[in-house]
Design goal:
Shape: rod-shaped
Strand order of the largest sheet: 3-4-5-7-6
Radius of gyration: 37 Å
Mean pLDDT: 79
Low-confidence stretches: 178-196
Order of helices and strands: HHEEHHEEEEE
Length: 203
Amino acid sequence: MPTITIPIEDFVFVVCALVGGGLLLITVLVDDVLGGVLDALHIGFDIGGVSLMPPLLAFVAMFGVGGIIATQTFDVHGGQAALIGTGFGAVGFGLALTLFRMLRKAEGTRPFSLQDLVGTEAAVSTAIPAGRHGSVYVRAEGQTHEISATSSTEVAAGTIVKVTGVAGTALIVAPASSAAPAAAAAPAPTTSEPSIEPPSEAS
């Protein structure tokens, strides 16, 4: 019974296409889990905010596809087949990088958390009784938001406050520091005029 022999270069190209393509598909479906593993190990790299793993997997997959096309369609082998595979890989790398950049831009920005507001200033919209809750207007992400707030001291509506912490779903605020008091005016220097005594009369 005749045995089927697969040239080593074809085997390499097939493995690259299958492994690279499979891992790239997994990466797309599970949001770059391999890149996340590398980041956790502090060995991750990125290009323009995109993990390097998806473009590399695309390069490997397209290298295999290009090599197979070279050997089976153009009947070229060895270095020429590897060169054609490298060209395909470069195209795959560029396409994957562009695609993932577009996906990252399309993703919504991370919504702000209350912790992000600590240290910012806000305006009291509803008076805050001491130890109880009112509300403040605070600006975040280009918009003004009304958020529940509490303070250890009574704060009247319209007061400018500073966010000092977070308590559950409410902000902890305190009246913003007032401007430093102006330096006390120095007393104007007084000049004493020399007293002129009348001349004594000659005896």
